[in-house]
Amino acid sequence: MSGDVSPVLAAIDPWRWQAHPEVWFLVLAILALGWWATRVIGPRVVPVGQPVVTSFQRRAFVVATILLLASADWPVHDIAEAHLYAVHMVQHLMITFIVPPLYLLAVPAWLVRLLVLEGGVGSRVLRRMAHPVVAGVAFNGLVALTHWSGVVQLSFDSGAFHYSLHLALFCLALLMWVPVASP
């Protein structure tokens, strides 16, 4: 055997670096939105003398973003996708039980009031969707659905479908955490 690694061995090596630009784009978009909210919008709407964000909110945002990147990028993503289903489940736990509440804790109350439009349709819809029973049933229903063999196979065969499932799990986890961790 020559000094070259065979293509088969290279294809199954979880430690071979692989780019995940969709993850980088998502993380950069989150960072850009966080910067825009706290540097552009916040100073316009927060009364003079009050902080736009607290140091706790800033730390929660940074930790949530780092954990999101760590759980969705190389090497965790590659190991989770092709080698260890247990790592994939840890990845799901991170994007549903750790990252969403940290992001919710990072959001200042003034930003929630701007985004949800208190008293408006958005506020009423969010209240209904984030009700513990509604959000809990929706989240757990999706978790059960994502573990059916046909859905698992489709998720394995289609990267876009898999990414969509992760995004849906994250969004429903955010709704589920609203009653517990909203500002």
Mean pLDDT: 87
Largest sheet: none
Sketch the topology as an H/E string, one letter per element: HHHHHHHHHH
- Report Rg: 19 Å
The rough form would be described as: globular
Query: Any low-confidence stretches, pLDDT <50, length ≥5?
Result: none
- How far apart the termini lie comes to 61 Å
For the structure shown, list the relevant keywords.
183 residues; mainly alpha; 10 helices; single chain
Question: Could you characterize the architecture of this molecule?
Answer:
With about 180 residues, this protein is an all-alpha fold. The protein has one domain. About 75% of the residues lie in helices and about 0% in strands. The chain has ten helices and no strands. The protein has helices spanning about 5-10, 20-45, 55-70, 75-80, 85-105, 110-115, 120-130, 130-145, 150-155, 160-180. α2 (about 20-45) packs antiparallel against α3 (about 55-70), α4 crosses α5 and α9 packs across α10.
Quick summary of this structure?
77% of the residues lie in helices and 0% in strands. The protein has 10 helices and no strands.
